[in-house]
Amino acid sequence: MSNIRGKAYAMNTITPMKVRNTWIVRLFFFLFGLIKPLQSGLIELSFIHFARWVIINHNQFPRVTARKQKENLQYDYLFFFSNFNGTWNQYIDAFSAVLSSDLNAIWGLWAGLPG
Q1: Structurally, how many domains does the chain consist of?
Q2: Rounded to the nearest 5°, which phi and psi values hold at 44?
Q3: In this predicted model, what pLDDT tens digit does every residue of 17-31 receive, in sequence order?
Q4: Is 45 inside a domain boundary?
Q5: Which residues contact 91 (CB under 8 A, 6 or more apart)?
Q6: Does residue 6 lie in a domain region?
Q7: Angle formed by the axes of helices 22-34 and 88-107, to 10°?
Q8: What percent of the chain clears pLDDT 70, i.e. is strictly above it?
Q9: Model-level pTM?
């Protein structure tokens, strides 16, 4: 798939996660990185230039200055960053077709997700 009018688009999400579930997501990412055959579906998504997940614990959230009071956050946060070619619908359809069970495993632990 080629760029549409020479453009690549960025998508970012911020997801609150229950603190007690963070270790499960970390384990999932560790195993996903360790076991290469699990990554075969990602290779099919050639229109995605870049994708990265980052977890920030509730007690490690950065402050602008040391003088600012630390926030008392009740959730850890999962950040997802991605750059891709094509339309939004193509991105979502392809990503969910190739990685639907993996996405459910990651984002199924959101705070307040129905079900």
Answers
A1: 1
A2: -70, -20
A3: 889 888 988 988 898
A4: yes
A5: 9, 11, 47, 48, 84
A6: no
A7: 110
A8: 79
A9: 0.74
